[in-house]
Amino acid sequence: MTSVEAPATSHSGAVSRSGSEDARLAVASEGGSNGGVVARDNSLHVESAGSTRTGDPQDSSYVASFLSRQHLMPHWRNVLARPRNRSCGSVTVLSFSSSSSSSQSGGLTLQSSHELSSYAVNPSSLTAALTPDLNAGLEQADSNVLSSLPRAVLVSDLSEPLINSLGPIFRLSPETFEEHLIRSGYTSTSYQDRDSSTWPTRFLPKQHVSLRWHSLVSRKDTEPRDASSRRVLMEDMMEWRRSFGKGPGGKIMWHTRLLSKLTNIFRQEWSLSPTSRPLKRRLVMSDQPRGLIDIGEGDEFEEVEKGPRADEELDVVAWEERVTFCWGSWNQGRCPILFFDPLPRMLLNDRQVHQESKWVNFVPFSKRLAPRGPPPAQEFDHAPAALDAVSAYANSTSDALSDAAAWVRHLTGESAFKDNGSSAVDLLLFAVFQVVRRDTIALLGHVGDVLDQISSGSMDERMMQEQLEHWRAVLSRLQRELPVLEKSMGDFFMFPYYAESKHGEASPPPPPLLNAALRELQADTAAMTVRCQKVQESLRAEMSLLESKRGIQEAESVSRLTELAFIFIPMTFAAGLFSMQIRELADNPPPAYGFVIAAAVAVALSYGLRLVQRSTVVSESLNKWEDEIRRDEQVMTRVIPIRKIAHWLMLKLRLKLLIFFVSSGSIAILVAPLWTRTAMDTSFKVVITVLALLCMLLVVGMVLWVSTSAFESLIPNRGNTVLGFGRIWRGPPRVREWETGVNPNGPNLADDNVTAGQQGNSADDGV
């Protein structure tokens, strides 16, 4: 593997490394907030002058002391593991002092801020950062007062040396680090971690609390793009190849790309775009070992190095972030500690045979959708310099620790926190709340826009079919995340005040400003949760209507195909009949018109049966017979049994069956001797048989006509219709005024009723 020689890092301390980790750390030390520093050479070595490397046996005693008891705490899957990068993370110590210019006592101002890198953190350096600076403009007599003033520790990212230093100094439990490392990408299996609510220690009192929220960012079209690529990146590094045409001799020019993460904490994201777009690039497997090939359009390395185009539309994703609060104990009392997530930095290497390697350090998103740091000091006016400041503020992509520290410096200058006696914990929590609040407001605003587009897009049938799966995934994720965010915000920002009361100390009330703003943010989150539920219910209703419409369309298409079947199936039958190996047809083939006549007769019979099935006479007759069977046989079930139908037919048709059998027997007695004579001509036999049948039918018909109206009760009265298929004439409508009972075209119904009543009375009198 070729490497690059990069400038030495600016941090104090001595480090000597080799391999890919050296390259990552070298470029990481030079990268800006948006990434883009490229180094080119043939070898890479990082050397600094100074102290020894952390991670010696005496430094790793904290983690090593718990390894033998790891089976007692099976949920400690990250804190006791060894991450890939050992030199990640930083510690910032904030020192506060009392403001002498404030009108009331107790106001705090930020005195100093000490930042230590991970390999510079050790007991001596932390003690020096926490020890008050007696030369900072204060007298020696004020050293006792200064030593009692609060300190705060802010930590970004975690590594094994950092855990070994922070744990024993502040007497922290490994569970505190494990809480912050849940599903953080700290190890290769970290994304499968279980939530802390399922731990066996969930019922014990805690000295820490964690908050997970989401920051909206514009995602670059870079790896990792899916869960499988992210898993490969967490395990080691991603490697793929890309072809760039053909070189001399027609040989394909291949570039090898290597992607690795520079931070131990690398959390996940989920899409929050209103529509899903196909990926511009994707990796496919080849038959070569480790044979991932990029078949997308454009050069990913150039886009990462130069940034996305101005007209390029990027996907909006919700990037997960977490902050953990705990109390640390040291020789001068307790101090609040906050653990933050770093920017998810990655290192992309481009290699080509006989060419120099190029490295670029970048962040997988271009910018946040809304800035979360304090507003710039320069007002936005007509000055050009103000425009530059506002643009830099709007496009900033700093990490959560930097934004929180900036809010601390900003809030210490405001009178609301300077003159009301706020403590360092109040100041820190409100600074973190400002970061979370701005991210959450941007999230809720974007979610509202997404819900509007889902509601409007669900009216478009084509868009509904294309985006339904994506919309359901977004709504399902929002239904899970928003209620958890609402609850965890209250637990996090109220924990320091209630945690003190558990230790027997007086519990100060939360600041009114923080309490009111928190309740307002929780109410907005709850309202958006309710709106998501309504949109999801509306989408389900639209899905039901779409499925119903699709079912109707399918039924109509099946009906049309059935109409065609009534034509082509008889033709197929006729064709099969004429293609059979029949001796008469084979010896004397029929003419073409014979096939046409047979096919026409078959189609007519088939379609005639369909018309009979759809006939009103047949349907109403069947309904009438069904009612009679249910009434006569006392059938209460939905389906009429066959034996009930047979019994009813036997009772209903016994006279007709008797006449049928008698007439059939009579004809058989008359015709049988006729057909037994072989000397008689066949045509004469047929004529005599037909005449006998006609005579018998005539006699039977006359008997039935005289005895009973056989068909009068079977065929319903349809008026002027032809076999129930439609009226052959239509008379004038009979209009009746139903209030008075008067028929303008006929006799008065009221008079008829009166006359009928009088006749009835007369009859009664006669009786």
Name the structural class.
alpha+beta
Low-confidence stretches: 1-59, 100-105, 134-141, 718-767
Radius of gyration from the alpha-carbon trace, in angstroms: 45 Å
> Fraction of residues in helices?
40-55%
Largest sheet: 8 strands, mixed
The end-to-end distance, rounded to whole angstroms, is 126 Å
Q: What kind of oligomer do you see?
A: single chain
What percent strand? Answer: 5-15%
Number of strands: 15
Global geometry: elongated
Helix run count:
21
Averaged pLDDT, please? 75
Biased composition (Polar residues): 1-18, 755-767
Region (Disordered): 1-40, 741-767
Keywords: Membrane, Transmembrane, Transmembrane helix
InterPro entries: MgTranspt_CorA/ZnTranspt_ZntB
Structural key phrases:
alpha+beta; 767 residues; 15 strands; 8-stranded mixed sheet; disordered C terminus; 5-stranded antiparallel sheet
What would your notes on this structure say?
The chain has about 775 residues and is of the alpha+beta class. Helices cover about 45% and strands about 15% of the residues. Strand 11 (about 315-330) and strand 12 form a beta hairpin. Helix 12 (about 425-455) packs parallel to helix 14 and helix 19 runs antiparallel to helix 20. It is elongated, with a radius of gyration of 45 Å. The N and C termini lie far apart (about 125 Å). Residues about 1-60, about 100-105, about 135-140 and about 720-765 have low confidence and may be disordered.
